[in-house]
Amino acid sequence: MSILKTAALLVALAVSPAGAQAQRYPERMITMVVPFGAGASTDVATRTLARALSEEVKQPVIVENRPGVDGLVGLQTFARAAPDGYSVLISSGSTFVLNPHLYKSLPYDPVKDFIPITMLYRGIQVLVVGGDSRIRTIQQLIETARANPGKLSFGASTATTRLAIELMQQIAGVKLLYVPYKAVGPYLADLMSGTIDLASADVQSLRSLIESGKLRALGVSSTNRHYLLPNVPTVEESGVKGYEFSYWVGTWLPGGAPGPVVTRLHELLYKVVKTPEMRKFITDGGAELVDYSLSELAALQAAELEKFGRVIRGAGIQPQ
After folding, report:
1. Of 42, 46, 49, 132, which sits most exposed with the smallest number of CB within 10 A?
2. Cβ 215 vs Cβ 241: under 8 Å
3. Which of 277, 229, 290, 291 has the alpha carbon at shortest distance from 44?
4. In contact, 314 and 175? CB cutoff 8 Å
5. CA-to-CA distance for 219 and 232, rounded, in angstroms?
6. Predicted model pTM
């Protein structure tokens, strides 16, 4: 596009109702909706983000928790919000890429009813065994599992922690026994006592247990080694080629939000997520900042929706 055409387009946007709205946005309070309870990691991240955004735009930014049914309650309510940029959803990517496969029907369309704006941060899982386990590497785990199909067990309390190991099983071609738990604490306790053989959780939950020797890290789920666990190999470099697993937290607007407002909010969040307070929160939690454009985040969401659909079906998980 020529410089003159580009300039003409920018002028047209500026004088259009939507363009004028975007220039003034935000003019009043913004509500950030979190589909999880107060105190959850996504909630804490949102409150940190809300403070940073409020300082940037000189407008109040409040957080509204709408927990229930793995985020379904909050997303259903948010999908009906006015698409004017003053209601912003902050949620884990799992609500968009896992829930459509875990529930027979959703009270919203995960694609048509939402517009992805910005990824706030991305984190990884660590595959661990008990500190006294005879298994010391991913390769040894796979060899033991192949020799004893269905005998080695793993625990998980969420779809995310379960699928990190389900994906490894499917790529490596082994079969482990899944043991469900209601919370991370009990399955880590059982892992340390030898009741189960393997588990997965985020870096922040496991780091102190790994450093104390109560748990042994076999591999991290990222494609590169993690900055907090530099001596722990990736699962992929340990022989499970093509393995990569991460969780992420992002922001969305209701479907139908004006393009200029979408662009403006992306610019604002892209800026404030890099403030010192947000950076500290993210890195202290073992996560990382990821710079995704609007189109890249939408593409990631679509790709993971397809990827985890295959993993869930391969694991034989039946939708509720």
Report:
1. 132
2. no
3. 277
4. no
5. 6
6. 0.88
**CA dist., res. 264 & res. 138, Å (int):** 45
- Give the CA angle between residues 210, 214, 220 to the nearest 5°: 30
pLDDT tens, residue order, the chain (320 aa): 444 444 444 445 545 555 666 678 999 999 999 999 998 889 999 999 999 999 999 999 999 999 999 899 999 999 999 999 999 999 999 999 999 999 998 989 999 999 999 999 999 999 999 999 999 999 999 999 999 999 999 999 999 999 999 999 999 999 999 999 999 999 999 999 999 999 999 999 999 999 999 999 999 999 999 999 999 999 999 999 999 999 999 999 999 999 999 999 999 999 999 999 999 999 998 999 988 999 999 999 999 999 999 999 999 999 98
Class of domain 124-220 (CATH, top level) = alpha beta
Do residues 253 and 114 touch, judged by C-beta distance below 8 A? yes
Structure tokens at 249: 């937290």
**Could you tell me where in the chain the CATH 3.40.190.150 domains are found?**
9-123+246-314
- Tell me where in the chain the CATH 3.40.190.10 domain(s) lie: 124-220
Judge contact between 125 and 201, C-beta under 8 A. Answer: yes
d(CA 294, CA 250): 11
Long-range contacts of 232-235 (CB under 8 A, 24+ apart): 232/126, 233/138, 235/127, 235/138, 235/168
For residue 130, give the nearest of 189, 201, 204 by alpha carbon. 189
